[in-house]
Design brief:
248 residues; 6 helices; 6-stranded antiparallel β-sheet; alpha+beta; metal ion binding; 7-stranded antiparallel β-sheet; Jelly Rolls
């Protein structure tokens, strides 16, 4: 059963901290432990989704523009936000991180990784800067018919926070068809497992970036994960990605 909480569409604007606090983080952590992903229903309201998606054509909000086909990443395009981030995205990045850092630290302990994530996102960004990672990584993705995102991992330097969040800004069945979020997991000496995550407009999915621990008969072992988006069959799809480490 997925760990989800529905925020009503008529909900007044509230702070990122308060809306993030409204989820059952014990259940979300259990979902991440079991499947490598968990859904946060209704993280953004419809008008907030539209507000973010409308930013895409305006270059002043972004530091770079990537056309996926030029790099073999798939088809479609995305833009990385520049600092300062839009208030809503920056607020969610700061509010989500402390909740997810609890899971991330537990994962590292289980995998025998000697790295502890600080409780505050600002402190983690200080570590990124010390490692030469100073460029913001939250991004806005845009797909049209025939576009897709190949399976990949968002690693931008020596430091990589092990969980990230993607928020769907378009409504499936109305704004687009196809374009499902896909997560694959490769366990040692086993075939890959695929997880297709159904989302509605405003829903977010938190998911493992690279590795996560799995309990085996001889203790914990690491599995390798990749994520992507299946082919969009009609319409247009926008997503905002919230990545917690910065890039070189």
């Amino acid at each position: 059963m997925e760990a989800t909480v529905k925020m009503p569409e008529h909900m007044p604007r509230i702070s990122a901290e308060n809306r993030v606090a409204g989820y059952d983080w014990t259940a979300i952590g259990a979902e991440l432990d079991s499947y490598g992903c968990a859904v946060l229903e209704g993280l953004l309201l419809g008008d907030e989704c539209a507000e973010i998606a409308r930013l895409y054509p305006y270059e002043e909000h972004f530091r770079s523009h990537v056309v996926m086909a030029r790099h073999g990443f798939g088809k479609g395009e995305y833009r990385y936000f520049r600092y300062p981030l839009p208030d809503l995205i920056g607020g969610l990045r700061s509010a989500l991180y402390p909740r997810l850092s609890v899971v991330a630290n537990a994962w590292n302990a289980r995998m025998g990784i000697d790295q502890h994530y600080p409780a505050a996102h600002a402190d983690y960004l200080d570590l990124c800067r010390g490692a030469g990672q100073t460029r913001p990584t939250p991004l806005l993705l845009q797909y049209q018919p025939g576009d897709f995102n190949c399976l990949h991992q968002d690693l931008y330097g020596d430091l990589a926070f092990p969980i990230q969040v993607a928020v769907l800004l378009s409504e499936p069945g109305r704004d687009f068809t196809g374009g499902e979020f896909v997560l694959t997991e490769q366990r040692p000496r086993m075939q890959s497992r695929a997880e297709v995550v159904p989302l509605r407009r405003g829903d977010a999915v938190a998911f493992a970036v690279h590795n996560r621990p799995v309990q085996g008969t001889k203790g914990n072992y690491r599995v390798n994960l990749r994520h992507g988006v299946s082919r969009v069959r009609s319409g247009h799809r926008h997503t905002v990605g919230i990545i917690f480490h910065d890039a070189r």
